[in-house]
Write a structure and sequence with these properties.
31% helix, 8-stranded mixed sheet, 8-stranded parallel sheet, alpha/beta, 14 helices, globular
Length: 467
């Protein structure tokens, strides 16, 4: 039986509004909002009343870029769907979209079925899937149509990682042409992997083996070049494009130019590019390996351009690219050869808090925080207004957020299944207090009260910016 819940006295913050309102939840959905203290709000009765006085009431975060249990570089991402979605909930995220992987020589369906098997019955919060397309052929292209029809409406391709996920320009063009017809959205990892592999080989031959060289060989210009090329291929195909984990100011400039031309081109960045830099990659005693991800961390001057892109809407989404590998036994695989360090950082638990810190620091406003972390990702990937807002009819994915609480990020206290934090020791203002997923309490006043299996698979419609 569903419990009626009333959240009283908080400041409801969505992408479009800020209003002191009470929120009524029935049957897992938002039933109504009414200004706090009004007769209408006072008349509501409920079995559960949550006092949000002095707090924000915000939509649950929507993280559209995670990699739970991803096989990579001879190992696996250390978070399972169970541990990863629990950590997401602790951080105020109530929906993830993870990436199912097509192996070369196998069908999309095989990959999707494998990811359903990993996730089903294990998630604390709701989840959906994108499809990584590693092998473009006539059968794959036909399968893309079928997947769109059943709610897997986005397909990721890689211009990087030759021999693993890499697609050449012809394969990319074919997939884009198909998505132009079936309404799907191509997500692009935009780095020139062929050129990067040459630079890797040359660096190792010179004895440059430390983690910092990972950032030096994956040059910003090669991210910008690939971004430009992806935009032009999408233009030829008449297809929309979403560029993932944008890290370089030169790539932001390519996106801005395309958007100024009226193209349906979108960009995502991640907290690591906004808060970390090549200084982290250069940390001594192999500590820099903790920060190896692709696209790589950039010199600090890139951060200002990323924040500017978020303010001007040349970048629309902040996701985590959560792909954790433990320092001990996993990152250490690359001692003596940076190219063997598994690529990825933990972050699914930290995104909402880091972006609130950006509000405190004056980089973005409160509504923009909710826009880039909740509403736009939900719209981009066909889940709005069910997800990403607080409005009658929406899923009751709601976070009570204390904007004044102080915290220090640490591996000692985080809930991700990884032995370090990328933000160790960072002081933040703001913290998640209570989290509801479809009206059920997952975090109750800083205590985990959810369970594996509550999270439901969420089929998605097509990108809502193209309708």
């Amino acid at each position: 039986m569903s419990t009626r819940t009333v959240i009283r006295g908080g400041l409801v913050v969505t992408a479009s509004d800020e209003i002191h309102a009470d929120v009524l939840i029935e049957d897992g959905r938002i039933a109504a909002l009414a200004a706090s203290g009004t007769t209408a709000a006072e008349a509501w009765t409920a079995e559960r009343v949550i006092d949000a006085t002095g707090k924000y009431v915000i939509p649950g975060g929507v993280d559209v870029h995670t990699h739970m249990e991803l096989p990579f570089g001879g190992t696996f991402a250390s978070d399972t769907f169970e541990t990863g979605t629990r950590a997401a909930a602790w951080g105020g995220t109530t929906t993830i979209v993870d990436f199912a992987v097509q192996s070369v020589g196998r069908s999309l369906r095989d990959g999707l079925d494998a990811w359903h098997a990993k996730a089903e019955g294990n998630c604390a919060i709701d989840y959906g899937f994108h499809m990584i397309v590693s092998d473009v052929n006539q059968d794959t292209l036909k399968e893309m149509d079928l997947l769109v029809e059943e709610g897997v409406t986005s397909f990721k391709q890689f211009m990087a990682y030759p021999g693993v996920f890499y697609s050449d320009d012809g394969q990319i063009l074919r997939a884009m042409q198909r998505s132009a017809e079936n309404g799907g959205l191509i997500m692009m990892h935009a780095e020139n992997g062929i050129a990067i592999d040459v630079l890797v080989e040359q660096a190792l031959a010179r004895g440059e083996t430390d983690p910092r060289y990972h950032g030096e060989v994956r040059k910003a210009l090669l991210e910008a070049e690939a971004t430009h090329r992806a935009i032009k291929l999408a233009q030829v195909a008449g297809a929309p494009l979403y560029v993932v984990h944008v890290s370089a100011m030169e790539a932001v400039a390519e996106l801005a130019r395309a958007r100024d031309e009226g193209l349906n081109v979108f960009g995502e960045t991640c907290p690591q590019y906004l808060f970390l830099s090549t200084d982290n990659l250069a940390e001594p005693d192999f500590e820099g390996s903790k920060y190896v991800c692709s696209t790589p961390l950039r010199p600090k001057e890139h951060q200002a351009k990323l924040w500017q892109g978020l303010r001007t809407n040349d970048l629309q989404v902040v996701s985590t690219d959560h792909c954790p590998f433990c320092f001990v036994g996993q990152k250490e695989l690359g001692r003596g050869d940076f190219s063997k360090i598994p690529n990825g950082l933990p972050g699914v638990e930290n995104r909402m808090d880091l972006l609130h810190q950006a509000v405190v620091d004056g980089h973005i406003g409160r509504r923009r925080w909710i826009e880039i972390a909740c509403a736009t990702p939900a719209r981009m990937f066909g889940m709005y207004p069910k997800k990403g807002t607080i409005a009658p009819g929406a899923n009751a994915d709601v976070v009570i957020y204390d904007p004044h609480a102080e915290q220090i990020i640490s591996a000692d206290t985080h809930h991700m299944n990884v032995d370090y934090s990328a933000y160790e020791g960072k002081r933040l203002t703001g913290r998640v207090e209570t989290v509801l997923s479809r009206g059920e309490l997952v975090i109750t006043e800083r205590e985990y009260t959810g369970h594996a299996g509550h999270g439901a698979y969420t089929p998605r419609s097509t990108c809502q910016y193209l309708n």
